[in-house]
Structures are given as structure tokens and as C-alpha cells.
Amino acid sequence: MIKVAVCISGQPRGDYKKCREQLQLNFPDADFYYSAWEGCETDVDTWFIEEPVLDYHPYGDIPKDIVLSERLADKIPKFMSKPHEVERTSHQTKQILAHAFMVEEYPDYDVYVRSRWDTYTWPEANFDPFLWCAHNDKNAIGFGTPSQNISVIREERDNPYTQYFLFDQLIIHSNEAFDPEYVYKLHREKRLIAAEWGWWQVMSKGGHRCMHGWANPISHVFR
Length: 223
Description:
Blueprint: E1 4-9, H1 16-26, E2 31-37, E3 47-49, H2 70-80, H3 83-89, H4 94-105, E4 111-116, E5 119-121, H5 128-137, E6 140-144, E7 154-155, E8 170-174, H6 180-188, H7 195-203, E9 209-212, E10 215-217, H8 218-221
Parallel strand pairs: 1-2, 1-4, 2-3, 6-9
Antiparallel strand pairs: 4-8, 5-10, 6-8, 7-9
Helix pairs in contact: 4-6
């Protein structure tokens, strides 16, 4: 049997107890670990981490040569032209750093499941084949959807929307697919990209997969 760790990180928000209980049903044989930034409050044993201070903007200040996605290249000027978007997106590498801290803290697992506190997973989803895929192929598999319906699962292939992009509502990856030191290096060099493009950046070498469905923030599922 493969050793699986579910690592929940970021900011506790929404009905995270409901999300956690569903994750425990979806991953009954996994060990669960929780982290949050200092100053947050939770109802479970949680590792509270000092929130990183960023000295660059993960869209506005990154070199143009690492922006491979046409969709991202189109979005960056729009993000940077609106003050509220500049602020909102300025924190979006912290989720990747938080997961790096957790993988470094709990290194002895074959496969990791990265989740937000507010990620709700489809109750009938069977993630076992994806755990084994990540383990055997040494890759990363991202789950998410822009829609409210999370019950349908399909793989995104040759879709410009997911070009150089990894859904990050839930990510299953092998130990080999994610190197915390590489994340820290990109961060120090001010080259770590934000959000889904950043997740692709740090986990694309093993042949990532983008799965449409089965996970979404709970506020998007129950409206």
C-alpha cells in the first residue's frame, strides 16, 4: 500500500469542517495534516506558520520569458491595471509556499494530496486510481472546475484554457513530483508564478494532468 498524506493549508474559510469530513471519507487511509497562517483560528490540531512576506508581485514583476501561457500573458496587464486585482493576486504564491513547508515537514510519504481548507470534494469520487497514477508515473494531477457542478470528471487535453496550468482546488502528486527546494529557489529569484500557473511551473516535469471536476471551493458548490 502506498503512504498518502493529505496536507490542508492556507486560510481557514467557509464550512471547512464539512470539507474536511468529506475529504476524510474520500481518502480514508491517508494521514491528515493541517497548517494555517499565524493569527488564523481552527478547530483541529494545526501547525501555525508565519505568513511569508513577498517582495515582488507574482504577475507584475516576473520575467516575460517564463510566461508561456497566452491566456496568462493576456491576463497580466488586466490584473495589474486594477488596484484591487493587484492586491488580490499579490498573495497567490503563498499557497505554493505553504504546501512546500508541509511537504518538507512531512517528507516520508509516497503521495501527497494538497487541499485548501475550503475545498469540497464530490462524495462519490474515487480518487484511488489517481493516487496510483501519481505514484507510478511520478506526476501531478490537478482537480477543479469553473462550474458549480463537480460530479462529472473529464481530462482536459489540448485546451487553451489549461495551457501551462494545473487546477489547484485539489492536487495529487508523488513525492518525486514536488521539490520544496525548487519552490524556495524560484521564490528567492522572484520567478515563482502565482496560482494555477505557478503550480504547473513547479510540477510539470513529470507530465502533469488536469482533471475537470470532483473538487471546488465549497462556496462555489453550494450557492
